[in-house]
């Protein structure tokens, strides 16, 4: 009859006890793996800070809203007062000035955007110089909806207004040709915090507007910017064309470009938009205030599609899978061959697997992700394979382990690179791995 001490010793040497210890070790190793993920997040945050600092110095994102005809007009407020003694009523009119804003009938934009990548230390960001040309036509501003007499419209004080978020990165003087005259824009100072910056001309000759015909306009803008370009389609018909040497645009905003004419290649892209006034929920004029129409803007983002830190983050997410499957391979070999593997040896193998991610992120910052992945993967696979020779006392099992790890790392790399088919490919791969584990573990005596 076995004593309780012998029964306890027998249990500790069983496959069940070994499996529990290996499982607990796998959970413990999630702690240093989480530290690695935090390191990746810290480096990624630092890159965002560098991009923000570069944008502040070179030029931030471009937002354009204009040109808008701004016409002042008089309004009157009647105040009635009653004399308490004589009971006579007197009416007093007080005049005040309001502003009406009118959008063009046609607005055409043609923008050529030249991008380049700026590097600072180990980080990089995309900046651009955009040459933007605007053409269009205005019709006579219509005050009939407000029943404002022509005598109360201050035509001689009309101006042209442009709103933007990036005055400091405009590279040249901004002039508009309106009819047969040219006008220069000047910045408008605003006391409102976080308000959109603006450019405004001096008083314009509004005789062309009052004639009833259409008045053409043209002006150019040269911006230094970063990250994105946004425009508000304020024309009754708005057409825009953006060409660039950037290979990875992200078309965003309230309107997408025409798929029939859009082209994207390694040499750059071209995109065309045509937006009608019936496509957006605002009219061609506004009285008393200029509405915020940023939600109707359209444009393009200039992004690095999958940067090195995103790829490292994706790789680290599979860390638990790599550790778990590697330990499972060693456990199956231990169970089949009856070779004893100490928990300390499992720990050394687990730490080697975690070192893969620290090597990966550090090498990626000085090279491409592919090269870093190859160097880190080969180094860790060789280290574990050589260490396995001393543990397993032969070369057959270490060769199998090295091959399995190489296949596993290759499988994870493919998943990282895939976008649309990552889930499908990963699910099929995991299904095949589970089938292999079930096949090789079928003859193990779990008792």
Question: What keyword list fits this structure?
Answer:
single chain, 447 residues, alpha+beta, Immunoglobulin-like, 2 domains, 9-stranded mixed sheet, elongated
Structure commentary:
- By secondary structure, the protein is an alpha+beta fold.
- Helices cover 38% and strands 30% of the residues.
- It has helices at residues 4-12, 15-28, 30-58, 207-210, 308-317, 319-337, 343-364, 369-392, 396-417, 422-440, and strands spanning 62-82, 89-102, 106-120, 123-138, 159-164, 175-178, 181-184, 186-188, 197-200, 215-226, 228-231, 237-244, 249-253, 263-265, 268-276, 285-287, 298-302.
- Strand 14 (263-265) and strand 15 form a beta hairpin.
- Helix 2 (15-28) runs antiparallel to helix 6 (319-337).
- It starts with a helix and ends in a 7-residue tail after the last helix.
- Mean pLDDT is 83; it is low at 1-9.
Put the structure in a nutshell:
With 447 residues, this protein is an alpha+beta fold. Helices cover 38% and strands 30% of the residues.
Proportion in helices: 25-40%
Biggest sheet overview: 9 strands, mixed
The CATH topology of the largest domain turns out to be Immunoglobulin-like
Residues in β-strands, percent: 25-35%
Q: Nearest-angstrom radius of gyration?
A: 35 Å
Q: CATH class of the largest domain, please?
A: Mainly Beta
Spans where pLDDT lies below 50 across 5 or more residues = 1-9
Summed up, the domain count is 2
Question: Please, what is the oligomeric state?
Answer: single chain
Question: What's the rounded overall pLDDT mean?
Answer: 83
Task: Output the number of helix runs.
Answer: 10
